């Protein structure tokens, strides 16, 4: 770890760091480590653990996990300012004469950290002040090697391209997520046009999957954290940030829109034979979504067919061959916390990991259930410990890493498995 750390801030570091000194009362002596990172520590210590030096670089898992979870306690722009300040202070980059040998060892590590940060969380750099911090700290090391300035230019170019692409996401969705509603039944020609445009269930399932993937790619991992942020009782009186979950919310609205679309298309035809034909068409589409691994569209289609305007059409359903529909309903049955679905999802994930084609790699989970799982995982663990430390174990580790060792841990693990996997 950096030489400027005081004993009260010292934690056991990763593999590139020298041995730690003895902790004082400010930190927990002998605290367990998780992949080279502290399981709990003060926010300042965790920030220090992120800062590279000439001889130290944080582990990749720690970088991602801390940058993701830190926004619960500190705004990203403030975190970047503190990281840059620590780099300048520890490497003495504010001195008239730099130690070029040390800077040449430190420079690539700093640029690597900034590259990982901008690549994974580009939205953290939307404000001009954050770009200013990057230019300032890299400008201080640039005199030691002009390659640093060139690398910074490339990094900023890639960042601007990412931000431009992300800005197109929400704008393209404006007005597209309004629920379908009609004051009067539309002409039957609209229904015939739908079947004329896409009468092949596999083709429609593919197109729905493209829509799903397009919307998913705009959701940053930080939105999942920000969606469930609660005011930290040990922090300031104001929340850390404003609402920044527009892409996540738009994706949830897409699910609702698809439900309404299915129900509307089924109800539009005047004759029950035609309505039955549309139901069977959507059953086939749902089955193809299941085969592709698109569980979100699958559940939206099933939900649309189970809406009361559709489910009450008894005479129409009497003309439907429902065997395939019942199989799909069984797969998405909510009983046992969606146990059947979770089994199918694990199978799709396994297929994805061993896939040889891009089609076999697709796995789109039932998104609302994923959000629910994340919510309860977050609610089940405290963000801060009674001593004020950030409970970093909540974000980095799990009982998958090490088996429960005592009865309390075993009961907690059993409860978590029951909640997540629907098992007792």
Question: What does the model show?
Answer:
- The N terminus is likely disordered.
- The protein has 424 residues and is mostly helical.
- The chain folds into two domains: 129 residues, Son of sevenless (SoS) protein, Chain S, domain 1; 223 residues, Son of Sevenless (SoS) protein, Chain S, domain 2 (Orthogonal Bundle).
- It starts with 32 loop residues before the first strand and ends with a helix.
- A hairpin with a 2-residue loop joins strand 1 and strand 2.
- It is elongated, with a radius of gyration of 26 Å.
- Strands 1-2 form a two-stranded antiparallel sheet.
Number of domains as seen in the coordinates: 2
Q: Count of helical segments?
A: 19
CATH topology of the largest domain: Son of Sevenless (SoS) protein, Chain S, domain 2
Q: What would the principal axes of the Cα set say about the shape? A: elongated
Q: Which stretches are poorly predicted, pLDDT < 50 over at least 5 residues?
A: 1-35, 170-183, 231-242, 397-402
SSE sequence, one letter per element: EEHHHHHHHHHHHHHHHHHHH
Rg: 26 Å
Mean pLDDT, nearest integer? 77
**In terms of structural class, how would the helical and strand content be classed?**
mainly alpha
N-end to C-end Cα span:
44 Å
């Amino acid at each position: 770890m950096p030489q400027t750390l005081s004993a009260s801030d010292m934690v056991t570091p990763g593999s590139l760091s020298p041995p730690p000194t003895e902790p004082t009362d400010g930190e927990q002596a002998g605290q367990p480590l998780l992949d080279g990172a502290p399981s709990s520590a003060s926010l300042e210590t965790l920030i220090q653990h992120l800062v590279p030096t000439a001889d130290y670089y944080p582990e990749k898992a720690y970088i991602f996990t801390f940058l993701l979870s830190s926004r619960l306690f500190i705004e990203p722009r403030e975190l970047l300012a503190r990281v840059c300040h620590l780099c300048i202070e520890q490497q003495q980059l504010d001195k008239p004469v730099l130690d070029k040998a040390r800077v040449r060892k430190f420079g690539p590590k700093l640029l690597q950290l900034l590259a990982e940060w901008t690549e994974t969380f580009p939205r953290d750099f939307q404000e001009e002040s954050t770009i200013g911090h990057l230019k300032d700290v890299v400008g201080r090391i640039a005199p030691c090697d002009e390659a640093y300035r060139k690398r910074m230019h490339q990094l900023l170019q890639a960042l601007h391209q990412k931000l431009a692409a992300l800005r197109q996401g929400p704008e393209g969705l404006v007005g597209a997520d309004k629920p379908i509603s009609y004051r009067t039944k539309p002409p039957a020609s609209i229904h015939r046009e739908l079947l004329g445009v896409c009468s092949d269930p596999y083709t429609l399932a593919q197109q729905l999957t493209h829509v799903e993937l397009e919307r998913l790619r705009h959701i940053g991992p930080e939105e999942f954290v920000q969606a469930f942020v609660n005011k930290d009782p040990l922090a300031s009186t104001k929340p850390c940030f404003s609402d920044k979950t527009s892409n996540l919310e738009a994706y949830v609205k897409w699910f609702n829109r698809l439900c309404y679309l299915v129900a509307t298309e089924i109800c539009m035809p005047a004759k029950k034979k035609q309505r039955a034909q549309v139901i069977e068409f959507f059953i086939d589409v749902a089955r193809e979504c299941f085969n592709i691994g698109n569980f979100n569209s699958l559940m939206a289609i099933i939900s649309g067919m189970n809406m009361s305007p559709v489910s009450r059409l008894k005479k129409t359903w009497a003309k439907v061959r429902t065997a395939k529909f019942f199989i799909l309903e069984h797969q998405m049955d909510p009983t046992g916390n969606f146990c059947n679905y979770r089994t199918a999802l694990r199978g799709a994930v396994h297929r994805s990991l061993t896939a040889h084609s891009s089609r076999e790699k697709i796995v789109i989970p039932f998104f609302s259930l994923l959000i629910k799982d994340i919510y309860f995982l977050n609610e089940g663990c405290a963000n801060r410990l009674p001593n004020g430390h950030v409970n970093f174990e909540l974000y980095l580790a799990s009982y998958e890493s090490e088996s429960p060792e005592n009865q309390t841990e075993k009961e907690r693990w059993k409860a978590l498995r029951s909640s997540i996997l629907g098992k007792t």
